[in-house]
Amino acid sequence: MAQGTVQVTHTGTSRWRRRTGEYASLAAALEAAADGDVLTVAPGTYRENLVVQRAVTLRGPEGAQGSVRIAPADGVPLTVRASAVIQDLHVEGQDAAAPAVLVEDGTPELLGLRVVARSASGIEVRGGARPTVRRCTVDNPAGVGIAVLDGGGGVFEECEVVAAGQAGVAVRSGAHPRLERCRVHHAAGSGLTATGEGSALEAVGCEVYEVRGSGVQVTGRATAHLTDCDVHRTTGDGVTLDTNAVLTLADCRIHDIPENAVDLRSRSVLTLTRTTVRQFGRNGLSVWDPGTRVDANQCEIFDSTGDYPAVWVSDGATAVLDSCRVHDVPDALFVLDRGSRVDVVDSDLSQVRNTAVSVSDGATAQLDDCRIRDAATGAWFRDHGSGGTLNNCTLDGNRTGVIVTKGADPTIERCTVDSPSEAGVYVSAGGRGSFLNCRVTGSAGYGFHVIDGCRTTLRKCRTERCARGGYEFADGGPDTAYDSGPLVEDCTGDESTGLTAPAAPEPVVQTAAQSPGLLGSIPGQRTTEQEPLIASAAAPDPARTSKAVLGELDALVGLDSVKREVRALTDMIEVGRRRQRAGLKAASVKRHLVFTGSPGTGKTTVARLYGEILASLGVLDKGHLVEVSRVDLVGEHIGSTAIRTQEAFQRAHGGVLFIDEAYALSPEDAGRDFGKEAIDTLVKLMEDQRESVVVIVAGYTAEMERFLSVNPGVASRFSRTITFGDYGPGELLRIVEQQADEHEYRLAEGTSEALTKYFTEIPKGPAFGNGRTARQTFEAMVERHASRVAQLADPSTDDLTLLYPEDLPGLP
After folding, report:
1. How far apart (Å, rounded) are the C-alpha atoms in residues 613 and 570?
2. What is the average pLDDT score of the chain?
3. Cα–Cα dist 156/168, whole Å
4. Which Pfam families match (predicted)?
5. What are the distances in angstroms from CA 274 to CA 263, 299, 300?
């Protein structure tokens, strides 16, 4: 057969039809062919835009796969509108506005195609089309790998997306494909994405890896079901769900993820069965917002590579873990905010560096028949309104079994705390709690240690072999109410036949060798500046005067130039108000600011105080701070970014919108990045709502300079740039001194000099965190101090409070 010809084998029954024919072009052959005919294409390059509208077979010569190239200059190289068979062709698309292969109708079979393109999509399926696509590869570094849209469907078997400039596989507008044994990698967007009501994606035995974004993303009421799939080596989250998304993961593996392994919010629902989550840099499961829910059964979450909780539940979300294992993580379960809840049944939490179960800010945790082993703290109920139940649980080998503080009120029933190295149960600072039929055995400290006159209930509890005693109750000092203290009923210990709360309990001295979290820190969910500069990070009190807030600003360590800039702004606003009252024109003051500087230099703290100052002056209604970053503003499909940005503005109404690392909205290799949509929306909202929201953008100095230079529309909205300089050794020393004073420690003779030398010599590279480094240094000193003092049989007050030069950690 001659080069560049097409042989058509006719299969019609009419005796008037030719049995075979040869045509000089594919278009001519397709025009002459009828349903059932076979078109065999000779090797060569065909610069034609093919449209297959009959149920024919179009294929390359047998044994010469890839020898036929369909490569027009523009447009769609191959369009299929019938139940045809297309086999062993090499398709090249060059039109950025069109797909390389478009399937619009019928139930065609695409077999062994290789699509190499710089097109809007490599393979696109639309409308009523239901193709079967087998052993095809797509290499499209300019757009989507495979797109299924507008109600399209079909089955993709053993296909591979080897490169994509956007999502590897995109499903939207009511489409519903099935992927079997497919591989998606080296995509610049999400690996698999399903968006929009009615859209559904099913994947079986697939692998998603090496993508610059989320491995799997389901949003906007779409659904997905993944079975026996691997998601790993992404640059973003492993799996992302948003806005009423529904996802089921069965027998899947999510690992080697630098961010959250699974992140879901906005009323999304996730069901995991026999799925493993490991080697994640942030949270294994990150669950946000009322109506959002995770149900995990027979799953394993382990081997965290970061410093964040394995399971994070907040803002009214719910998580249910049944027969699961969580181990080798910094913290196992962190549930916070009123309405948030975790229910854990027949599960193991072990090898936890900090707290296995932490409950705060009014959240609830219910654990039944669970085992908590080898944690610094088994369960910590932190503050008022926080509670729940531990029922029939075993806490073994933890530093402290259960901690209850600051008005928290859990119920602990039929639980056993075995071999704690400090205390079985520790209640302080107004904590309450009811302990019913509980047992503490083999404690190296006390069994039940209740201080500060806490109104804790102990009923039918028992202690055995506790080194310092089964029960220790210390009063709260002279200001404690006369009827405070624990309520004790039918409790026993192996050193006595019965126990009642003493009428006048003797006070005890609390040692400093507590679990790491007793300094009060809660792991953060996002990378935000950890400010050690003020004693409390509570929300600002709008009742304070501007003078009081400026006084707090002045009390911060260093930041002299920053303080001058803020005072100058405050003076301008105050004088403007006075001029208006006097009937004079007031100078227009743009209140939006740019903060530049390294991490840990106090940008977030100053932004919070600035909002409070503006509220005290009547410029803003509330003055509260809403902190966001790129991930909170930028979506991964058209339209979602504007919605997210508008929602952030709405949350900040009457206060300050603080955009951390704002330069990430305009990356240097932006391409088709949706960050520009966020910037455009910001610019418009800053103008439309200039009286109700103040915007502060922050980030590294050089990156912010680039950001403002390439976005003049943004730069024009800001009145001034305030630069936050790095802290010097003396300022870092003052921060440590503040931390020590706050937590009732003292620096021994020579320690200040040793700290100054330490901060002078510490490397000032990218990992240097300024104030955060000072705080971490203090915490490391406290830990080393605790290890030293714990060896003393009867430590003095000096022993318990003095930090020596040898408590300093080694230089990183």
Report:
1. 8
2. 85
3. 13
4. AAA, AAA_lid_6, Beta_helix
5. 18, 5, 8
For 762, which DSSP code?
S
- The DSSP line for 533-559 is SSS--PPP-TTS-HHHHHHHHHHSSS-
pLDDT of residue 380: 95
658-696 confidence digits (pLDDT tens): 888 888 887 655 555 567 778 878 887 887 777 788 888
Residue whose token pair is 């439309």? 688
Dihedral (CA of 272, 300, 394, 313) sign: negative
Tokens of 138: 């797509």
DSSP 456: -
Residue 649 and residue 613: Cα distance in Å, rounded?
20
Asked if residue 403 lies in contact with residue 395, where contact means CB atoms within 8 angstroms, the answer is: no
Sequence letter at residue 700 = Y
Q: Please report the pLDDT score of residue 481 as a whole number.
A: 45
Could you say which DSSP state residue 811 is in? Answer: P
Q: Answer whether 401's CB lies under 8 Å from 423's CB.
A: yes
What residues does 790 pair with on adjacent strands?
none
SS3 665: helix
> Which tokens go with 550?
């400026």
Cα diameter, the chain: 115
Reading the block at residue 737, the tokens are 């001194």
Q: Which carries the bigger pLDDT value, residue 346 or residue 629?
A: 346
Q: Is 194 helix (H, G, I), strand (E, B) or coil?
A: strand
Using alpha carbons, select from 421, 466, 419 the residue that is nearest to residue 447: 466
pLDDT in tens, 194-246: 999 999 999 999 999 999 999 999 999 999 999 999 999 999 999 999 999 99
| Distance separating alpha carbons of residues 149 and 194, to the nearest angstrom | 10
- Residue whose entry in the numeric block shows the structure tokens 């278009």: 27
Contact in structure between 189 and 212 (CB atoms under 8 Å): yes
CB 86 within 8 A of CB 58: yes
Quick one: which of 499, 198, 136, 208 has its CA closest to 124?
Answer: 136
Q: CA 700 to CA 769: how far, in whole Å?
A: 12
The two structure tokens encoding residue 181: 């044994």
From 631, 549, 562, select the one nearest 593 (Cα to Cα). 562
Residue 250 Cα to chain centre, angstroms:
22
- Beta-carbon contacts of 57 under 8 Å, excluding residues fewer than 6 positions away, are 37, 38, 39, 84, 85, 86, 87
The two counts, helices (H) then strands (E), for the chain are 13, 67
Distance CA 39, CA 61 (A): 10
Could you count the other beta carbons within 10 Å of the beta carbon of residue 685?
21
Contact by Cβ (8 Å): 58, 87? yes
List C-alpha distances in Å: 203 to 132, 224, 228, 231, 241.
14, 8, 8, 12, 16
What band does 530 get if pLDDT is binned at 50, 70 and 90? Answer: very low
**pLDDT band, very low/low/confident/very high, at 633 (cuts 50, 70, 90):** confident
The position carrying tokens 């181990």 is 327
pLDDT at 151 over 50: yes
Give the C-alpha separation, 450 to 470, whole Å: 11
Residue 717: per-residue pLDDT: 76
Burial grade of 605 (CB within 10 A; 0-12, 13-18, 19 or more)? buried
Task: Name the strand (E) or helix (H) holding 401.
Answer: strand 400-405
What are the angstrom distances between the C-alpha of 485 and each of 306, 456, 509? 40, 7, 17
Token duo for residue 158: 């053993």
Q: What is the pLDDT of residues 401-451, one digit of tens each?
A: 999 998 999 999 999 999 999 899 999 888 999 999 999 999 999 999 998
Cα gap 183→594, rounded to integer Å: 44
Structure-block tokens of residue 375? 């944690």
**Dihedral, CA atoms, 494, 498, 501, 505, nearest 10 degrees?**
-50
What pLDDT is attached to residue 769?
Answer: 62
Query: Model-level pTM?
Result: 0.63
pLDDT of residue 630: 78
